[in-house]
Amino acid sequence: MHRSLLIAVTEVRTFLRDRADLAFSLLLPIAIFALMYGAFGTTSQFQGTAHIVNEDKDGMYANRLLEKLSILGNLRVKLYSKTEAETKLARSDLVMVLYIPEDFSAKLSKGEQAKLIFKQRGNGGQAGQIVASMIRGATEEIAQEIQVLNQVGSALESEEITQDLIKTTVQKFLKREQSHPVIEVKTKTAGSSPDIVGFMIPGIITMFVLFAVSLGARTLVDERRRGTMERLLTTQLKIGELFAGKFFASVGRGFVQVSILLILSFVVFRSWTAVSFLETLIICILFIAAVSGLGLLIGSIARTEDQAVWIAVVFTMVMTMFGGTFFEISKGSVLYTLSRASINMYANESLKMIITSSGTLPDTGFNQLVLAGVAILSLFLGRIFFKVMPGGR
Fold first, then answer.
1. Residue 111: which region, alpha, beta or left (left: phi > 0; alpha: psi -120 to 50)?
2. CB atoms within 10 A of CB 165
3. Which of 28, 167, 215, 384 would you call most buried, defined as having the most Cβ atoms within 10 angstroms of its Cβ?
């Protein structure tokens, strides 16, 4: 066992020094993670900017409009001077600008009609039209507030109540209505939406661990072809110790790769506890062990490096496709039945349960047994084929 661990440590060090292997095994998964997070992990809600020229800087209603727009979570307000806005429109740096005239608040205070002016190039763009619609919604709210205030003032005109008191009272009730509306609108999503942490992270982990199969299989065939193993076996090293060393080396490489991905996910999302992080790591180690055993089995069967790589690639693609790596598989379907033959399914299912807090490590006991069984059986069969294949011993 001591010699096996020495072989494993030596190969892991070699792996960490090899820039090509590091780029493939570490940097590529991180890059894919970043791309998928950018594509699916960000919010789908519209984010826009309202470009505004406010010529009514001290106007109450102009400031009220800017305040309403500023509190919208998906809209950013950016103010310009008139000259700056005209220049940017002329250069097409901006395609739509809202102008608030200097008499905007004064006219509203007198009960007169006030106007807002949109200046745009072409149709203002799709984003510009959405922003304009949001601005119109905010102005309609202000118009409704003014109408309510005027109607209440007219109704209480004969009463000895000051306009300031009327205004204060009306605004108080309007704010209460905004915070606790009589009619509340709720949005419910039909079906489930993909969760970047609970759905994609397990898929990324298992897919790239499976890619390591080709590395392990290729290395075994290459060393056999070059006679490296034969030279090692002329020492006191036994074939069983050499085989175990290769297995531990593959597990070590996979552990480094998975640890970096898990730490990166934890730093970005901070959605795991220390316990769930440890449980996730345990499941990953079992999956790495199963994949490492399969890599040695493929390396023992293949007679050339090309054979080893192609067998490993086909195996990886099949396991990824049928294992529900990046899509849900409906229970009871034919694909669900086929997925039982994929080790990806057992790992993905367990990781999703832990990451989404829908289960704990004991709840994944059967899946863990399957992964452990695959690892043991692969090592056993790999050792047999390694012995019976040409050049084996």
1. left
2. 10
3. 215
